[in-house]
Specification:
The protein is mainly alpha-helical. It has five helices and no strands.
Length: about 160
């Protein structure tokens, strides 16, 4: 496993997942954007520092992208040990599992917060499930991206 592949996959998957969350947030007129929700949870916590700008503060964004990288590493372990050749169908299956893990994680975070952010939870969890399908698919192609670039430009070091 190369760090460049994990980083490319995490950036691709997390970025497109977040763009989908922005789209759905605007469409549903709800707060669905994960980094912003993370910042709200941090800001509303009694034990963590206040966050003034919840949309742009780096804490939520760093956590969100770091979790994307952690999911990619987990995918890599699954592919290496049991799935062998990742493809769209397997990527979507893993994405569905990731969506369920994501939903459970957010339910726990909202439950343990004394003052969780407000949104329509059913709609949020539904969009989060689909966002993870997008994440897994784009992470798969993001993981393969350095190989494609290397084949297209063999003199480029990656």
């Amino acid at each position: 496993m190369k760090a460049s592949k994990v980083i490319a996959a995490a950036i691709a998957g997390t970025t497109f997942m977040t763009l989908y969350s922005y789209y759905m947030a605007k469409k549903e007129k709800q707060q669905f954007v994960e980094p912003e929700l993370l910042n709200e949870l941090i800001d509303r916590s009694e034990n963590l520092p206040d966050i003034q700008n919840k949309k742009e503060h780096p804490a939520g964004w760093v956590i969100h992208y770091a979790l994307g990288a952690a999911f990619v590493v987990a995918y890599w372990l699954l592919w290496r040990r049991s799935l062998h050749s990742p493809g769209i169908a397997k990527g979507l299956l893993i994405g569905a599992g990731s969506g369920l893990v994501g939903i459970l994680s957010w339910k726990i975070m909202f439950a343990i917060s004394n003052n969780p952010p407000h949104n329509n939870r059913y709609k949020y969890y539904r969009q989060l499930f689909f966002a993870h399908l997008i994440f897994s698919t784009l992470a798969l192609y993001g993981y393969k991206l350095p190989d494609y670039v290397k084949r297209a430009a063999p003199n480029l070091q990656m």
